[in-house]
Amino acid sequence: MDRRRVLKNMGLSLGYVVATPTLLGLVQSCKSEPAIIWTPEFLSQDQGAILTKLVDLILPKTDTPAASEVQVDVFIDKFANEVMEEKQQDLFTMSMNKFVEKALADSGKESMTDLTPEDLEPVLASSLKYSKEDQTKMQDAITSYSEALEEGKTSTLDDETSRFAFANNLRGLTIWGYKASEYVGEEVLAYLPVPGEYIACGDAQELTGGKDWSL
Predict the structure, then answer these.
(1) 214 vs 29, 52, 184, CA distance in Å?
(2) pLDDT for res 207
(3) Among 144, 17, 29, 154, which Cα is nearest to 83's?
(4) What is the pLDDT of residue 192?
(5) In Å, how far are 50, 55, 155, 159, 179 from 172, measured between CA atoms?
(6) SS3 breakdown of the chain: % helix, strand, coil, rounded to 5?
(7) Handedness of CA 156, 157, 159, 165 (dihedral sign)
(8) What are phi and psi for residue 213, nearest 5 degrees?
(9) Distance (Å, rounded) from C-alpha 41 to C-alpha 65?
(10) Which of 136, 154, 137 has the alpha carbon at shortest distance from 145?
(11) Please, is 166 exposed, middle or buried when counting C-beta atoms within 10 Å of its C-beta (0-12, 13-18, 19+)?
C-alpha cells in the first residue's frame, strides 16, 4: 500500500474536538523533546515503550518516517495528559491494560517490558478486524459505558470490546498525530506557509493535487 498516497487523502475522523492553538502547542512541545530521553507524562515508562512499538506497527517506516520518528508517541501521551477528560483518560488506561493483558497471555510472557512488536502485532490486528456491523455494536457499547460513567453509575466493558476501543482510538490518534507533525505537514500534505486567496468551490485536484491541507 502506498502510505504516502493514503495520508495525502485521509481526513480526520476522531471524536475529539481540540482548538487549533492547543493542538499546535502540543505538536511544538513534542518537536522540542528528544525522543531518546522521553519520559511519559500520562503513561508509565513501560506503557510508553509499548505505545512506541504500537504506533510504529500502525505507521512503520517506508518512504516516509515511522510514527515514532516524528514523535507521535510523545504527542499521544501529551494529548492524553493535557486534553482528554478524566473519563476518557480512564477508558484509555483501562482499555490499554486489557490490550496488554491479551498480548501477555498470547505470548506467554509475564512482563510488558518483554513484549516485542511481534507479540503486539497479532493482538492489534485482531482488535481491528471486525465487520462494520460488529464495530457499530462495539461503538454503541463504548458509548453506553462512557455515558454511564458520566452519570456516576457502575458500568463495565467486556475484554474484546475494550481491546477494540483501545486499538481503534490509538489508530485514529496515531494518524492524527502523524499528519500534524512538521515533516508530514510540510513534505507530504499540501503546505502553504502564507495562505493565498480563498477559493470556496475549487477542485481539490487542481488546487492541491488531491492532498489535504497541512494544519
Answers:
(1) 18, 24, 8
(2) 52
(3) 17
(4) 47
(5) 17, 10, 25, 20, 11
(6) 65, 0, 35
(7) negative
(8) -75, 145
(9) 24
(10) 154
(11) buried
CA distance 207 to 192: 11
Phi, psi (deg, nearest 5) at residue 190: -75, 120
Query: Smallest Cα–Cα separation from 101: which of 63, 64, 66, 127?
Result: 127
Q: Which amino acid is at 110?
A: E
For residues 6 and 205, give the distance between their C-alpha atoms in angstroms, rounded to a whole number: 15
- CB 138, CB 127: distance < 8 Å: no
Distance in angstroms (rounded) separating the CA atoms of residues 94 and 88: 10
What is the per-residue pLDDT for 132? 94
- Whole-model pTM: value is 0.72
SS3 129: coil
Higher pLDDT, 184 or 112: 112
Task: Give DSSP secondary structure letters for 187-215.
Answer: HTSB--SS-----TT--HHHHHTTPPBP-
Q: Give per-residue pLDDT as tens, 52-78.
A: 999 999 999 988 889 999 889 999 999
Quote the Cα angle for 47-50-56, to 5°: 140
